[in-house]
Design a protein that fits this description.
Distance between the termini: 21 Å
Shape: globular
Order of helices and strands: HHHHHHHHHHHHHHHHHHH
Largest sheet: none
Number of helices: 19
């Protein structure tokens, strides 16, 4: 990766903005919209909450592992750099292609659909409003990020504070609400007509979208004031906050409403808010949830546009000069525009769960490569300066890798069609890589 990628980008992000981006990107949509899928899989309070806990542990191990390479290579581009260093330029390119063309736009699309769904429910609009509202919302997020990286960081910080208010209100007042008749944490068991391990596997898979986002702050490393110190700390602290919030919020859901009213209900957060706070109070909390979803979309938009920008600088994408464009504030607006257009095309499907399943398989394949890369470089590059080393090595990287392998196998079996689409789009990057290599070789000669 080019050494001068970051020379025109302003180092304006401190630990607060970095932590806000981690927590703000993760806490956005999944905590409110994946409770439905987790509950459908388990039909059990104890097993559902265990799945949320186990998903958090896997992601914590993954984040602590990836932070080692993130701190060693604190450059704009994030995961592309983490894979390119141990495995070479081909795998680095394929990571960037999948990340920039499939994964990030799919995240924005899924979150926009979730926003549109909640918005339509709040104002009693027809379902035909969901996609247009999602497109307009995603456009507003992109435009704010085009102003400056600092503006995008400010949006993350503000929305994180605002989103924690309804979450805190739901948690504190939710347990004071009459309920909890069938609320039991033990024994951990599946609901009626559910096999324990199959139910846990499906539920765990659903939590992965909700926990995803911890690695993306690495794409902003070139704009951080002190990335070696702030990156690993932000990932670890951010994930700890997220796990705690997710367990408490989901516990309240099950405390206030019966399991069968959570299963298959994408508006469960709105229903719970109405029960706890009444009509007007419920609407205010729901608006807070919309702010939370907006903040999550901002995190993916802010971090996502940096990867095609770096690839454009390196001349590895068709129309690289366009992708490498920065505006006066040093923001890669052209890359962001392309990702917005792709996200809009994905939104037209209107399928929240299908989009999330596709993106989870694609990104966890490359996450597993990151974990393997960390272990590989411990042997091949022992003298590499590592400002942070993953604790309890190699136990934590192995837990992350085993969890990742389980996620990949489960997704492939349970969601074959959508997974296959993600694989095909990713593999389209292979001929593009070799075409650009041949083209660049001609230019050099």
């Amino acid at each position: 990766m080019a050494k001068n990628n970051d020379e025109h980008m302003k180092k304006s992000l401190g630990f607060g903005a970095t932590l806000s981006t981690v927590a703000g990107t993760i806490i956005g949509t999944g905590v409110f919209f994946k409770a439905s899928a987790v509950t459908t899989a388990t039909m059990s309070i104890s097993l559902a909450l265990f799945a949320w806990f186990l998903g958090g542990i896997i992601n914590m191990c993954a984040g602590l592992t990836a932070a080692e390479v993130a701190a060693a290579f604190p450059e704009t581009g994030g995961i592309v750099k983490y894979i390119e260093e141990p495995f070479g330029k081909f795998w680095g390119f394929l990571t960037g292609w999948a990340y920039g063309i499939v994964y990030m736009p799919a995240n924005v699309a899924a979150i926009a659909i979730a926003f549109g769904t909640q918005f339509a429910g709040l104002f009693h609009l027809a379902d035909s409003w969901i996609v247009p509202v999602g497109m307009i919302t995603a456009l507003s997020v992109a435009l704010l990020n085009f102003i400056s990286a600092k503006c995008g960081g400010w949006v993350s910080s503000v929305t994180l504070v605002i989103k924690l208010l309804p979450l805190a209100a739901i948690v504190i007042l939710g347990f004071l609400h009459p309920g909890g008749v069938n609320f039991r944490l033990f024994p951990i068991e599946a609901g009626p007509h559910r096999a324990l391990w199959a139910a846990l596997g499906t539920a765990l898979l659903a939590t992965m979208f909700a926990y995803d986002g911890w690695i993306h702050v690495g794409t902003l490393a070139g704009e951080m004031k002190n990335p070696q110190k702030d990156l690993p700390k932000a990932i670890a602290v951010g994930l700890l906050i997220v796990i705690t919030v997710y367990l408490l919020v989901n516990a309240v859901f099950y405390y206030v409403v019966p399991v069968n009213q959570v299963a298959g209900n994408l508006n469960v957060s709105m229903d719970v808010a109405d029960k706890i706070f009444g009509g007007v109070g419920g609407k205010i909390v729901t608006i807070g949830i919309l702010v939370s979803v907006y903040g999550g979309m901002n995190g993916y938009t802010m971090t996502g546009m940096r990867v095609p920008y770096v690839m454009g600088q390196e001349k590895t994408l068709p129309f690289s000069n366009f992708f490498a464009k920065l505006n006066k504030a040093g923001v890669p607006w052209a890359s962001g525009l392309v990702q917005y257009i792709i996200a809009c095309l994905m939104m037209l499907s209107g399928q929240f769960d299908a989009i999330t399943n596709m993106l989870i398989f694609v990104i966890w394949f490359f996450y597993c490569m990151v974990f393997i890369g960390v272990m590989k470089m411990r042997k091949t590059r022992p003298d590499l300066k590592r400002p942070y080393k993953v604790p309890l090595y190699p136990v934590i990287p192995l837990i992350a890798l085993l969890g990742g392998a389980f996620i990949l196998i489960s997704t492939l079996i349970q969601q074959f069609t959508t997974t296959a689409i993600g694989i095909v789009i990713t593999l389209i990057g292979v001929p593009i890589y070799f075409y650009m290599q041949k083209k660049n070789a001609k230019v050099e000669h």
